[in-house]
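[step 3/7] inverse_fold.run input=structure_tokens len=218
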């Protein structure tokens, strides 16, 4: 088993046991079920579990969160473990990944709702409703992601996209497109500073209004 880093206790608190169980499930079945690449097993804690959980720093108490494109469970599952006060919905279109997420929730006794569907679909939007915060990681470039996520954010709420080194370039490239779908100016910040060796880079966009309607000609 991959050793549990000391900092995990600080990040997950009372949820550490659930985090360990989730890591063990991924270690045992993740590669075989095509959920993670073989190289990810060694770095499950720092690159995935801890990196995901620390984004909770930017989320208020007891709010509703929708995680779009959860895949193997990131960032939604570690976030739900570290922050049991949140009401978390995991959205995932692929059946085998949605099945996995349900299995994880049942095995580690995690109180989340798994919904199968694509974030941009009307039926999905009607089903999940609006949230205070919509999270995502590695789902789409910022402009497209904003078009999918902001309609799920209540006015005054925000989307939080975990991004890598591309974050600032994406913001510079896509800020206008984000504004067209109702987003405020995107900002880039780090979560887990002073806790993780490599903090998590997050792009934050507030939903300021509904998407702009295209102007009619004439
Ligand atoms: C590269 S994986 C990332 C998975 C996970 N967020 C992570 O960081 O490990 C992208 C995920 O987004 C999902 N996805 C793709 N298009 C989507 C859409 N339109 N709505 C919701 N999820 C989507 C895919 O099925 C896949 O699970």
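[step 3/7] decode complete -> sequence:
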């Amino acid at each position: 088993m991959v050793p549990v880093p000391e900092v995990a206790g600080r990040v997950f608190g009372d949820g550490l046991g659930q985090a360990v169980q989730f890591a063990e499930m991924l270690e045992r079945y993740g590669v075989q079920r095509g959920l993670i690449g073989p190289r990810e097993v060694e770095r499950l804690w720092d690159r995935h579990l801890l990196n995901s959980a620390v984004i909770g720093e930017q989320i208020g108490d007891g709010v509703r969160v929708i995680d779009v494109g959860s895949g193997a469970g990131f960032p939604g599952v570690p976030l739900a473990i570290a922050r049991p006060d949140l009401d978390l919905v995991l959205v995932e279109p692929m059946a085998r990944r949605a099945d996995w997420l349900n299995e994880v929730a049942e095995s580690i006794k995690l109180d989340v709702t798994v919904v199968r569907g694509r974030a941009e679909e009307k039926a999905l939007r009607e089903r999940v409703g609006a949230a205070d915060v919509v999270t995502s990681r590695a789902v789409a470039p910022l402009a497209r992601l904003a078009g999918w996520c902001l309609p799920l954010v209540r006015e005054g709420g925000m989307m939080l996209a975990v991004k890598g080194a591309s974050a600032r370039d994406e913001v510079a490239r896509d800020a206008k497109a984000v504004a067209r779908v109702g987003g405020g100016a995107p900002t880039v910040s780090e979560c887990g500073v002073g806790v993780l060796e490599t903090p998590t880079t997050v792009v934050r966009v507030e939903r300021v209004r509904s998407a702009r309607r295209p102007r009619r000609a004439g």
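[step 4/7] annotate
Residues 182 and 211 are 4 Å apart (CA to CA).
The longest helix spans residues 16-30.
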